[in-house]
Every structure is written in C-alpha cells, then in structure tokens.
Amino acid sequence: MIINRSKDSSSNEISFVSKDMGFLLTQSEVSYNFKDKLVEDIAKQVFAENRLSVGTIAKTNVKYTKMFIGVNGYDTIMSAYTEASKKTKKKYMIEANLDKFNVIEKGTVTLSVMFEEGFNIINTTFSESMENVKNKVIVVDQYGSKISEKIDNEIFKEVNVIMQKVIQQQENQDVDIDSEFNGIEKSCSLKGYGDVSCITGRGVKVKDSYTKLVGLFYIDTDKHTWQNGEYQIELELNFQNLMDEKSAGQDEPKEESNLGGEDYAGGKEFTAEFTAYCPRKEEGGDTDCRKKKLDPSKKTCAAPMVGKYEQTYYTKEFLNKHPLLNYGDEIQVITGVSGRDGVYKVNDVGPAITIEKNGTYHIDILFGNVEEASKFGRRKRKNYYWWLFW
User: Fold this and answer.
1) What angle do CA 173, 30, 50 make, to 5 degrees?
2) Which of 367, 388, 363 is nearest to 378 (CA)?
3) Which one of 198, 307, 314, 336 is at 20 to 30 Å from 6 when CA atoms are compared?
4) Count of CB atoms situated within 10 Å of the CB of 132
5) Is 313 exposed, middle or buried, given 0-12, 13-18 or 19+ CB atoms closer than 10 A?
6) pLDDT (tens digit per residue) in 287-321
7) Cα angle vertex 149, ends 146, 155, to 5°?
C-alpha cells in the first residue's frame, strides 16, 4: 500500500513510498485484558477488531494471560507468540501476504534463489560487535543480596573477559537467566538485483568470498526499489533464525477481596492513590522530611502529615473524617501488587502528597531504584485501601 507520494516539478518526477499491510498493525493501539486465552485466538481477535483479513494462523495450544492498554496490535500479537515460543520452542512471525495477514513459523521456507558475487550481488557488508556481550548473570534480591549467579563459558571463550549483568528479582517473580546472556553480535546486509520472493522470514543462500558470507542466512528486513527501469533489493540478513520477541502488556493488578482476612490487622479504612519514588535528587534526595537517610530495605512511605502542605479545604469537619498523619505513624497498605502490601511507616511528605477533596489520600511508596518505581507506576482503584493503626 502507498503511504507517501510526492511530486517534483523540476524533474517531472513522482515518487511513491509503499509498505506492506503490516504497517497498519503497528499504527493501531488496542485495549484488552486476556485471561487464559489461546495465543492463536488472541491473534484472530486483534486482526478481526482491526478489520484485517486473515489467512493462516499458527496453532500453539498455549494459553496466555496479560493486559494490554495502549499497545499496538503488532506488539500485542508478538508478545503472545513470544510467550508461546518459550513452550513450543518454535519461532513465529507475522506476515503480510498481499491482502491477508498470516502468523507463521519463521525460517521454515528456504528460497531457491541464490545471491552470488559476479552474478546478482551489488555489494555486501559484514560487522561484528562485542559492545553488548553479557556472559555472566548475577541475581540479587530486592535488598541487593546475591541469590545466584551463572556464567556462559562459550560466550566467555569468545571474548576472554567477564562482562556481567545484575538482575534484581522481586518477590514471587521468576527470572529467566539464560535469556539474559548475549554473545558477539554479528550483522550483515546485501544489496542485489531484485527478486520478489525475498521477503522477511525466508531463508536465502549467499556466496560472497570477500565478506566470507557463504551459506544459508535468514532475512530480517527487505526493501525493494524500482527506479529508472532497474529493480534492486536490500536485505538485512541474520546468521540465526531469530524471532522478533516482544514483552508488551502488563499483569492485571491483584484485588484483595477479603479485606478483613488474617493478613490484615483491621482499623479505619480509607481510599488511596498510590505512587512510587526512590532516593534520588530529582525526587527530593536521599533523606526524609527530618533529614534522616531513606532506607529502601524498610517499608516506608510519604503520606499527608499534620502541618505539612495543608490545603484550604482542610476544615475541622473534613479532618475529622480524613485525619492527617504524624511522622512515625504506621499504616497498613493494600496496593493490589504482590509483595508490596503490608505495614508501612510514614517518614516523608511532599507538595503532591495531600488528601483530595473527595477524601482520597496520596501515598508515595519508597522503592530501591527508578526501574522498580516506574514499573509500579500510579495505582488508583475504588477498592484500594489503607488502615491507620490508632
């Protein structure tokens, strides 16, 4: 499909830029909450609701649970198939074939065409980089204590130096250590005389003595150019059959239905909006409101305090219903996030940490780093509560 068109009066030329239909899937955002749904049915639903024609959809028999809000259709489908790939050990891709979309196994088709120097190759390139090598992975807990470590000896032999990655594992979270290893990255490309069968996901044979590109390669991207009566093709090639893995979406926040259960001590109940912060200059530094050093290993939070950032609508009647807290008060928090509920000590405050006119408390929970805080984000639901211990 043509997506851009331009005219130039000086040369009497009209230029067109076209892309296959896959472009449409990257431009449309979705909002879904999939629960135990077959991956192939997720793909069918995304295609159907975007009114896109479907051909073949690869079956996985893998069920998937994830929430997608504001994620494009391509990332939604590929995130589901990435999860399925972990179980089926197959590689998948989305293919736009003329007027239909297919989800197929990647790299199962090898083209009969061969690119060979002196025949249909214009030029080839090849490069290697160790910039992103990771051959050792260390897993630590939320307080920085080591849980485990692993070295990939094969990657180590390639560079003869340790290049490690540290992963902070959250409570009740699994870590796939093997997926964090990364060897020397190799990339190659080819420019030659065109063949319309050369499309992404296909295997193609190449023979070029200068760059030593000899053998079977997999097409990662393809670009076709027709100009002045000549048809040329540009291919990004890969030594391995790699899947475009995606991990979009988020887990559904867990709601606590048994608010009076044995995990909670009871008390007075209030609605709250939870946000997250960490010790850094942009968020007030690494000390609390009394200049004591913040300690992310302890459960502490910022909450509306007596005498701090009080609002004009804080009348006596309002505060009787919605009391302010004092430094050192303990509150029991239900955020709906596994591992983040429990008793927190109030030791900080800020200009945004107030009680809204509708009685909603702003509670800012302390995390250890920016990544954790960003992942937690902002959480406000009508059944999120905190308990004040009187």
Assistant:
1) 140
2) 363
3) 198
4) 10
5) exposed
6) 899 999 998 888 999 999 999 998 999 999 999 88
7) 150
Give the chain's end-to-end CA distance (angstroms, integer): 66
Q: What is the pLDDT of residues 146-175, one digit of tens each?
A: 889 999 999 999 889 999 999 988 766 778
Query: What does the radius of gyration of the chain's CA atoms come to, in whole angstroms?
Result: 28
Domains and CATH numbers, the chain: 2-105 (3.55.50.30), 110-238 (no CATH), 268-388 (2.40.40.10)
The identity of residue 376, as a single letter, is F
Distance between CA atoms of 37 and 58, rounded to whole angstroms? 15
Q: Are the C-beta atoms of residues 338 and 254 closer than 8 Å to each other?
A: yes
CA-CA distance, 64 to 83, in Å (whole number)?
8
List the beta bridge partners of residue 344.
331
Report the distance separating Cα 148 and Cα 140, nearest Å.
Answer: 7
Q: Report phi then psi at 147, rounded to 5.
A: -100, -45
Amino acid at 147: I
Instruction: Name the maximum alpha-carbon separation found in the chain.
Output: 89
- Could you tell me what percentage of the chain is helix, strand and coil, using 3-state DSSP and rounding each to the nearest 5? 15, 45, 40
Q: Are strands 136-140 and 146-151 parallel, antiparallel or unpaired?
A: antiparallel
